[in-house]
Design a protein that fits this description.
BirA Bifunctional Protein, domain 2; 8-stranded mixed beta sheet; 5-stranded mixed beta sheet; alpha+beta; binds adenosine-5'-triphosphate; binds magnesium ion; Rossmann fold; 35% helix
Length: 460
């Protein structure tokens, strides 16, 4: 629990963000688009717990990876002594679940997930301690075709989100034997340039020298550029696989560059690795990373089962969407109902439910400590809600069995309010909006075909 010392107030935890109502329309748009795209490739969603046994990650990710060395939120369950960890990523959990439930008993599986991940990193733009990933794991597929499919799926998602300026970097890191030969030469090379290694690199020299290639230290770049390249150590099978991926991508017009220095943080990767990167987010420019991880299922005690997947950073992608300048604001509702008096309140509930039956979003004014209950105060709320109509019910309306309906937006807003019998309020409003009468049009898509919100839109 974090405490704001001075005020004695409890505040949120550093690096863990609240996603406020002003932000959620963008999140929802992202999530909806993701769902549609993954479904269109036949991927099925899986949801695994946020907490797993610590051993799952220390064994699965590799003991000397950044995540396991210093980023995990691990704790001992005070009830029973279990060693637990808030998941820092989801591949390990998904593979565990797939094995535990024998999901691949009748053939390979295309799975996807979305949710929060936890890493104890230094918070900065694009790097948080609770962040969100969407990922896909294709388990049981051997060939380069699924690697290419996963990549194309990402490309489609960027397109559907209206994101440009994300480029694909591709590499193959071969198999264990090929990496072994490369590693021997690499360590020898780094030892020959020992004076240029920073502390991190020296620590990794014998534990995980491949990760040195991934350094962000500018003073090491030149030396690292000259290091032996894994790609030159690939055997026949790895090369054929890698060429297979490239062949499909080229034929499908997915541009990429081969980055021989691209490696991935986790130990379980082999062969194809890829990253989607952008220059628009400063140093946190990787929005998605993935690759093949054929050894992992066996490491978890399953039968040897090849697999391939990716994970994307949702916060970074949303940053990019915001940078594109499109507006993702959304009105709170279609109709706001203002009412005054006990009888009026009961009638207001009836009218509101009928409008909702017709598919409209309705905010019914409810008593609050702050906002006054006068009609004036309620109409202010109605305006702020972005509703297209206010329905007003007071003593007079109850006496006449009618509501006053007032258009609030566009040219129609200058129209006077009208008396509409309670029974006809729904049809009256629906008539104004459904299927583009002269005045209004129903349009959920913008020029890109994006569904910005589920709301009715009006001509001005
Ligand atoms: P980085 O090199 O930026 O630390 P990573 O290699 O640790 O990334 P992965 O484990 O491959 O990242 O996770 C996939 C994606 O999740 C990343 O490309 C990034 O977009 C996102 N991501 C990773 N860590 C964070 C974080 N702490 N905050 C926000 N997004 C993150
Ligand atoms: Mg990291």
């Amino acid at each position: 629990m974090s405490e704001d010392k001075k005020a004695g107030k409890i505040v949120g935890i550093k690096g863990m963000n609240d996603i406020l109502p002003s932000e959620t329309p963008l999140w929802e748009l992202f999530e909806n688009t993701v769902q549609v795209v993954l479904k269109s490739y036949g991927f099925e969603q899986i949801r695994t717990p946020v907490v797993e046994a610590t051993a799952l990650f220390s064994r699965g990710l590799g003991a000397v990876t950044d995540i396991v060395e210093k980023e995990m939120y691990s704790f001992t369950d005070s009830m029973n002594g279990d060693e637990l960890t808030l998941r820092p990523e989801s591949t390990a959990g998904v593979v565990r679940a797939a094995l535990e439930h024998n999901l691949t008993y009748d053939g390979p599986k295309r799975l996807w997930y979305a949710g929060p991940m936890f890493r104890h990193e230094r918070p900065q733009r694009g790097r948080y301690r609770q962040f969100h990933q969407v990922g896909a794991e294709a388990i049981g597929f051997t060939g380069p075709d699924i690697d290419a499919e996963l990549i194309m799926l990402c490309q489609r998602l960027w397109d559907d989100l209206g994101l440009q300026d994300i480029r694909l970097e591709l590499n193959s890191i071969g198999d264990a034997e090929e990496r072994g030969r490369h590693r021997t030469d690499l360590v020898a090379y780094f030892e020959a340039h020992h004076e240029l290694l920073d502390a991190d690199a020296q620590r990794r020299l014998h534990s995980n020298p491949l990760r040195i290639l991934d350094t962000k230290n500018p003073t090491m770049q030149e030396m690292v550029n000259g290091a032996p390249k894994l790609i030159d150590y690939l055997g026949e099978e790895s090369r054929t696989h890698f060429e297979g991926v490239q062949r499909i991508l080229r034929h499908s017009n997915v541009p990429f560059t081969i980055n021989p220095r691209l490696v991935r943080g986790m130990d379980y990767y082999n062969r194809t690795v890829f990253e989607w990167v952008t220059d628009q987010l400063g140093s946190q420019g990787t929005v998605c990373g993935g690759g093949r991880y054929d050894p992992l299922v066996e490491m978890f005690g399953g039968k040897p089962t090849p697999a391939c997947g990716f994970a994307m950073g949702v916060e970074r992608l949303l940053e990019l969407m915001k940078a594109s300048g499109e507006q993702y604001a959304r009105q709170q509702c279609d109709v706001y109902i203002a009412h005054l008096g006990d009888e009026a309140q009961l009638q207001a509930f009836v009218v509101a439910e009928r409008l909702r039956d017709a598919g409209l979003d309705v905010v019914l004014h409810c008593a609050s400590a702050k906002a006054g209950g006068s009609f004036k105060a309620q109409m202010k709320r109605a305006d702020a809600s972005g509703a297209a109509f206010a329905v007003i019910i007071g003593d007079d309306e109850v006496a006449n069995n009618t509501a006053s309906v007032k258009p609030l937006r566009g040219d129609a807003a200058s129209n006077a309010q009208q008396a509409v019998p309670f029974d006809e309020v729904t049809s009256w409003i629906v008539d104004q909006i459904v299927d583009g009468g002269e005045e209004y049009e129903h349009d959920e898509h913008d020029a890109h075909g994006h569904e910005h919100d589920g709301h009715i839109h009006y001509k001005h």
